[in-house]
Amino acid sequence: MQQPILDWLKHSGFFTFMTGYKWTWPACETLHFVGMALLVGIVMGVDLRMLGVLKRVSFAPLHRLLPWAIGGFIVNAITGFLFFAGDPYQYASNPVFKMKLLFIALAGVNALVFYLIPFRRVENMGPGDDAPISAKIVAATSIFLWFGVMYLGRMLPFLGKAF
């Protein structure tokens, strides 16, 4: 990332908010955890249904939960930005952070692929119905990517240029 942007963040109100109060970083960590639980928990339910693990559940009830997963993603995007603003040089120079962002981007592309290709074939799936192979591939990829995001996020302090 370019130096002027990092300098601006280091002198911004976001930096002051994250570093000026003892409660902001832990509060953001808590919100980030809740957002990740919503996002990954719901996406995992949908993915496992595609893979046949929850075959007794219709697809529609799981799909109705996706707005909560999107809400969790939004919470994580906001808190993630605040973390970055709280220590921009540390994050920008950490290759593990860059890998985490790549996994998030790939998970987003994977979700788009799901809605462009197999979604129409699974939206009316009832109990006992089997998902097409395209949906299973997207689901397995999603599980891999979101576990990768969680692993890389947790390992940020320990891998690459540690905090």
Q: What does this entry show, briefly?
A:
The protein has 163 residues and is mainly α. Helix content is 75%, strand content 0%.
Radius of gyration: 18 Å
What is the helix/strand order?
A: HHHHHHHHH
Helical element count?
A: 9
Task: State which percent range the strand residues make up.
Answer: under 5%
The number of domains is: 1
Mean pLDDT: 90
**Class by helix and strand content?**
mainly alpha
Number of strands: 0
The helicity comes to: over 70%
Low-confidence stretches: none
Shape: elongated
Furnish the topology, listing elements before pairings:
Elements: H1 3-10, H2 13-19, H3 24-50, H4 59-63, H5 66-86, H6 88-92, H7 95-116, H8 119-122, H9 133-155
Helix pairs in contact: 2-5, 3-5, 3-9, 7-9
Structure description:
Helix content is 75%, strand content 0%. With 163 residues, it is an all-alpha fold.
Note the main attributes of this structure.
single chain; 163 residues; mainly alpha; 0% strand; elongated
